[in-house]
Structure formats: structure tokens, C-alpha cells
Design brief:
mainly alpha; 63% helix; Hypothetical protein af1432
């Protein structure tokens, strides 16, 4: 996307207002990542017969709340009806699941499909819509990503979106286990659905 414009914003706000709000909510590096994810989501949408404009917008807003202060997250979890267990996690999980609250509040985007894609983009889920998969994978393989296996991930994803999801979940679990990190239950459940090969 040479120029960032969203034909439909799924919000009373204009495209330029959404872009300006997002830009003011994060540092330049994070904003550039969101632009790249938006562009990658658009390409994946084209390959998978999905609405490119909607995918581009969902990809753009996926990290809207990534840099919200921890104290604000904790307050929202306690007061806005989120699962209290989320308090045992951190911003890596919160910015997807709880991030939807800030997107609704600040960007006034209420489209359930976009919000669900944001909700699931860090954890995956046992059931994922085409948009869920597009945002999940666009975030993982956008051109700024540079980790062992990213080229393979790109090749797989552009050939088959579902296989891309399987690759990412397996890769992420391997990474978390290696670090002895806690694994969010939804990610583990998603791995069992998408990544396990039947013998």
C-alpha cells in the first residue's frame, strides 16, 4: 500500500482520523509494523478471495493497543467484564484480547469480524475465520520480520493459509517451550486442532 487509505472504516471515523489516532497511540516502529501487516493482510486476502479493504483495516488496527500502559489494561480487565484470569498474563496476550476494548472505545470500530481477528491474532483459536487467519499470518510474516524460519513461513502461507496457521502455532509453541514460558491455554488448544499431524 503506497498510500494508506481505507475505503470503508466500519466506524463513524474517517480513514484519516483512524490513521491519525493509531499513529498517536504508538511509537514509529510499531506504526510502521502495522502498515506492513495491513499490506500483507491485503495480499493474503487477494490470494484467498477475501475482502481486501477489510483485511487491510484489520491488519492495520491489530496492534492498536500494544503500547497501552499495563495499569490501564489491569483496570479495564477488572471493570469491563473480561475474564479475571487475564490478570495472570501480560501485554503480549492483552493487546489482542483486551485490545478490542480500546479499538471499540477509541476507533469506534464495532464490526465483530474485525474485532475477533484482533482478539485472536496473538493466540490463535480452535476455530478461525478467514480474516482471523489472514491477520494472524500477516502479523507473523510481514516483510519486517526476521527470524529463523520466516522465509519458510512466508512460502507456506502464500501457498496455503491453513498450513501457514499450522506452521506458526508449532513454531510459537516450540519457541515458548524452549524459553520455559507459560503458554496461553487457547494457543495450546489451537495447536492441537491446527498443527498436530495424524499418524
Amino acid at each position: 500500500m503506497t498510500e494508506l487509505v481505507f475505503k470503508k472504516t466500519y466506524s463513524p471515523l474517517s480513514s484519516s482520523e483512524i490513521i491519525a489516532k493509531e499513529k498517536s497511540n504508538m511509537d514509529e516502529q510499531r506504526f510502521a509494523h502495522c502498515v506492513r501487516v495491513s499490506s500483507t493482510a491485503q495480499k493474503l486476502a487477494e490470494l484467498n478471495g477475501y475482502d481486501q479493504d477489510k483485511a487491510a483495516l484489520a491488519g492495520f488496527v491489530h496492534d492498536y493497543a500494544k503500547q497501552v500502559p499495563v495499569s490501564e489494561y489491569r483496570e479495564v480487565i477488572k471493570t469491563q467484564g473480561f475474564d479475571p484470569d487475564l490478570l495472570n498474563w501480560n501485554r503480549a496476550i492483552w493487546h489482542g484480547i483486551v485490545g478490542t476494548y480500546f479499538i471499540k472505545r477509541d476507533l469506534q470500530i464495532t464490526d465483530p469480524e474485525i474485532l475477533t481477528a484482533v482478539d485472536r491474532h496473538t493466540t490463535g483459536d480452535v476455530q478461525m475465520t478467514t480474516l482471523d487467519k489472514i491477520v494472524f499470518m500477516a502479523d507473523f510474516i510481514e516483510p519486517g520480520r526476521d527470524f529463523p524460519g520466516v522465509e519458510e513461513a512466508r512460502k507456506i502461507t502464500f501457498a496455503n493459509l491453513d498450513q501457514g496457521v499450522a506452521f506458526q502455532l508449532a513454531h510459537s509453541l516450540e519457541f515458548l517451550v524452549e524459553k520455559r514460558s507459560k503458554i496461553y491455554p487457547r494457543t495450546f488448544a489451537a495447536y492441537n486442532v491446527w498443527s498436530v499431524e495424524e499418524n
